[in-house]
Amino acid sequence: xxxxxxxxxxxxxxxxxxxxxxxxxxxxxxxxxxxxxxxxxxxxxxxxxxxxxxxxxxxxxxxxxxxxxxxxxxxxxxxxxxxxxxxxxxxxxxxxxxxxxxxxxxxxxxxxxxxxxxxxxxxxxxxxxxxxxxxxxxxxxxxxxxxxxxxxxxxxxxxxxxxxxxxxxxxxxxxxxxxxxxxxxxxxxxxxxxxxxxxxxxxxxxxxxxxxxxxxxxxxxxxxxxxxxxxxxxxxxxxxxxxxxxxxxxxxxxxxxxxxxxxxxxxxxx
Length: 270
What we know:
Rossmann fold; single chain; alpha/beta; 10 strands
């Protein structure tokens, strides 16, 4: 086994006995308890579990937005001690800036994240081409000059995904990005995200309550217990890619969904 200061070479994200406690004294809450989780480079991993089990907390720990109370988090072989620049993030609400066009919103990380911010003005046209190519890849060609209020909810989420990916992050963190969308738009975006991931093969940690979404998108699904959260299940999804929406009606697909639902039901009952 790797020493506490190192990780196995095939582990891109590695959590070792990670616990996190919020508050102090009578208001103290144990959110995660001795969580262990390992994700390979290029893997698409989903995290599911009951509400309040610590799924979003896990994302903050991996991205370096907060330190664990005990244990250690490693990304790309290095112990996480500060916010990481190799991470892209997308959330349930697109949070696009209303005064910026779609193109300007997508390019925002390039103005902030190293090393791009140093060359942003000099290489602006190169970055514009990158952003427009990315928008085209998610079906937003021709919408770069629109403002967020001129876009549908699904289009705003596509732009949010582009913003999370524009600086070519090694790790993409998704916190229920499709939860607020209608079923048709949500399923359409599953295929969009799968297509982009298959082309670029970045590592993904995807928090979701939707078990069909988890099975459709993921290589691996991790089940988290109710609070305090612990990793209590790991399921490899052995379905061919690219997956289609027709696959979601098949017996093998639904067996995965039912097995995950049974496991979460057991977790709730404990």
